[in-house]
Amino acid sequence: MMPVLHAVIVSCPGQGHVNPLMNFAELLAMRGFFITFVTTEWTDQRLLEAASKDAAARDREFQERGFKFRFLTIPDGFKPEKGRTSDIGEVFLALQSLGPTLETVLMAADKSVPPVTCIISDSFLSCTAEVAKNIGVPRVLFWTTCTAYAIIQTNANFLLSQGYIPVKEEDLKSKEKLITCLPGKLPPIRPTDLPSFYREQHISELIYGAFLHESRIQKIADYILVNTFDELEGGKEAQMGLSINGCPALAIGPVYLPNFLQGRNSMYSMWEEDKTCLQWLDAQAQGSVLYVSFDSIAVKSEKQLHELALGLEACGYPFLWVLRSDMAQGKSVVLPEGFIDRTKDRALIVNWTKQLEVLSHPSVGGFFTHNGWNSTMEAINMGVPMIGWPYFSDQFVNCRFSKDVWKVGLDLEGVDSDEYKMVTKEIVESTIKSLMKGCVGRKLRENILKLKEAATNAVMEGGTSHANLNTFVEDMIKLAKSKV
Ligand code: UDX
Predict the structure, then answer these.
(1) Would you list the domain boundaries of the chain?
(2) What are the tens digits of pLDDT across the range 240-289?
(3) Is the CB–ligand 1 distance for residue 14 below 6 Å?
């Protein structure tokens, strides 16, 4: 008899985590899985508020789509009014002790649901290892990052033992201490590609220890999935570099793309989306607009925001700028005097967009991004070349690979070795001009269009990610059958 598959999917509290995990949850629900989606109370509240709906309305929507789906939440231990994006280290430390709460919530919940058959854990939720062991189900590690970063992060303690971590300032500057000892046949990794919180200057911060701890537990997995596609990241060999004790490691992404290709924009925003962007884009010339967004966490000094604004003004292109109100290091954003007035005929500044709809709009010709993995892949899938301005974590390797390995983006000189480097308005202006016109931009566009096609093929029937997802589902069925 066919067992009912019940996947508990646990997501970190963050836009770049909830989006891919929810899309993955939908892919499994379409294949008949019963899904329990777990995130923190704070995250769930934001998702509901941004969508202007209550939990009952959301449940109904999922039922109407024929999904067997329920949402559960766990408290993260912080007061509701506390911001969750300003001190990431503190948040991750708190998440590490949530195992017992998660287990209690899973055990106490509705007895009418089928028994859990696997836990699909965000790769940064070490607390799920103990829960999976106690419940006696496989732990599937889901990386919302690229494979190269996942391999680096899984091996962070090895890199520590080899003296690559903490990354010394002189190594950041010289970039000569190349890392070639990692599995997965990665291109040589530069010190500047390593997660930024492993730099010497961050040793005393909570995030440094928290992520080394995560790295130890990332070595405990029965199955590994990565939100990327084989054609982008060195094929099966690269993914196998992630395998723990020979367990399967498969690229199944981009997980939002099947939904998108079928006309469903199933992005789950934690901030209310501006409704005017698309109309504004409709009025712009094809390929003329620069989309500027550094997403949910990045902050910049007031001086830096001024240089950026003046560079956007000087470049002469229309721009759509996602400028969160909390982006100026806790202060309210103050733009250069007269800037809004001078640019009002060719600029739209908003708090949050429907990013996929923006990137897929024909007026958008370039993306100025922080190179979060989701944004990077979305740009690739929509064929929009990028300028990368990484802020932290994996964004540095994403930016470097976009420029040097996939050749679909530009970077800003010196930012890779100095996260706080002041980028002048002149650099902003000249880099935008290189991206938007001339032979450099044309070549990047050609390259990214090839990858766009490869990504689309990967998720369609017969494609690599589609086949890998089938393999995963079959393996979960086999495992569940072996337990009946
Ligand atoms: C961070 C890491 O950088 C990323 O690599 C990891 O996988 C998750 O955590 P984040 O800073 O949230 O990510 O950025 P990103 O990965 O780019 O994800 C942001 C998501 O928000 C994207 O799916 C993007 O489409 C969406 N978004 C962003 C919007 O819908 N509207 C916006 O205005 C901006």
Answers:
(1) 6-265+459-483, 277-436
(2) 999 998 999 999 999 999 999 998 877 899 988 998 999 999 999 999 99
(3) yes
Total-model pTM: 0.97
Report, at the CATH architecture level, how domain 277-436 is classified.
3-Layer(aba) Sandwich (3.40)
User: Where do the H-state alpha helices sit in 177-301?
Assistant: 206-217, 235-240, 257-261, 277-282
Instruction: Assess whether the C-beta atom of 293 lies below 6 angstroms from ligand 1.
Output: yes
Predicted pLDDT of residue 296: 72
Q: What angle do CA 397, 403, 408 make, to 5 degrees?
A: 120
Q: Which long-range contacts (CB under 8 A, 24 or more apart) does 200-203 make?
A: 200/166, 200/167, 200/168, 200/169, 201/169, 202/166, 203/166
% the chain with pLDDT above 70 = 99
Q: 214-232 burial string, b = 16+ CB within 10 Å, else e?
A: bbebbebbbbbbbbbbbbb
38 phi and psi, to 5 degrees? -115, 130
For 439-476, what is each residue's pLDDT tens digit? 999 999 999 999 999 999 999 999 999 999 999 999 99
The mean predicted confidence, pLDDT, of the chain is 94
The pair of structure tokens assigned to 246 is: 């020979």
Which CATH architecture describes the domain 6-265+459-483? 3-Layer(aba) Sandwich (3.40)
Mutation choice for ligand 1 from 375, 376, 395, 397, CB with most ligand atoms inside 8 A: 375
241 lines ligand 1 (CB under 6 A): no
Which atom from ligand 1 is nearest to the alpha carbon of 322? 33
